From TrEMBL:
UniProt entry tagged with the keyword 4Fe-4S: no
Keyword terms of this UniProt record: DNA-binding, Phosphoprotein, Transcription, Transcription regulation, Two-component regulatory system
Signal peptide residues on this chain, from the entry's feature table: none
Sample GO molecular function, one term: DNA binding
GO BP terms, alphabetized: phosphorelay signal transduction system; regulation of DNA-templated transcription
Protein name: Response regulator
Pfam family, one: Response_reg
Amino acid sequence: MSLEGVLVHMKVLLVDDEKLALHSFNRLLKDYNDIDIVAMTQDPREALILAEHGAIDVVFLDIEMPEMNGMVLAEKLMEIKPELRIVFVTAYNEYAIQAFEVNALDYLLKPVQRNRLAVTIQRLHKQFLSVTEDNKTPQYVLCCMQSLYLRDDQNQVQSFQWRTLKAQELFAYLLHYRGQTVQKDSILEVLWFDSDLEKASNLLHTTMYQVRRTLKRLNVDIQIKYIDNGYRLEIGTVSLDMDQWEQALVESLPVRTDTIDRHHRLFAQYNGDYLEAYDYIWAESERERLRALWLILAKQLAQYHVQTGQLLEAFHFYVIALERFPFNEEIAWEAMKLQAELGNTYEVKKLFDKLCENLSNELGIVPNANIQQWYDQLIMRT
């Protein structure tokens, strides 16, 4: 059971290019005894220095500033100190809705009203309640077979609940290149190829902010670092289901009598292709590589059961393989041979007709000559 802690004194930085706005906001915050305003600045660069070298918990940040957009500054601040709570302040309602309905802690509209500010302060209070046991970071497995979700050490599933599809794709893209620095230009070309450079850059900053907030909310040990004009996702203590599956498979092949149970489990664990639920073209190469590994496992399991005289069990693996690889003539032919050996000519015909239909409809071709000749000879004998 978690224990409620005490309220932490909050150290606040105010950033706004308008001096009058800074002083006005300063007066409003003085009503709160548990808030210490450690600095006010009109210079975004000074804000970065203060965040790096000063004890700051919360930043109230204007959006429309001439030297540096508030969204860009927010991301740089989070890079320096990921645990910062940032509250945006803007005079533009439309911009606020667009930018901060993506899991920001809060936003305030100018002129700031006392009752609305009170709501923000209450939210900050909840964030700063220190707890003991609940602050432990659980050990997560990040699942990317079929779709993205987290599974903790108690086998409980947590979804990311992304606020935008772009946030989901940005996270998936950086995860795809985990441990590597992905240049900002590369991200823009892949995710925002249809936007001009300035708009795409702003969208990237907005979306990156959301991704980081989502990871922070989940208390998961995944960090996104800004390095040399690029981003690198580091998974820390988090494991990936695909990595675990591939490592276990490579270490245990080939299929033998002493490993058959382990390989059956590995076959069952593969419950979907890599990021299968998403239409990400950039993921296709890795998806096909992992599918090819799974196909090797399926074929070896089928061959093992053929060698041990379990033909129906072997056929079972070929059928499942055909569901994933409906145009694979080798698998279809092996399945037909098994049914022929079992004396099921009708099942052979069904398999052959289905293969012809798939190849014709999708690829505009017919089965290769060897399969056609084998099938014709079989039909002539029956």
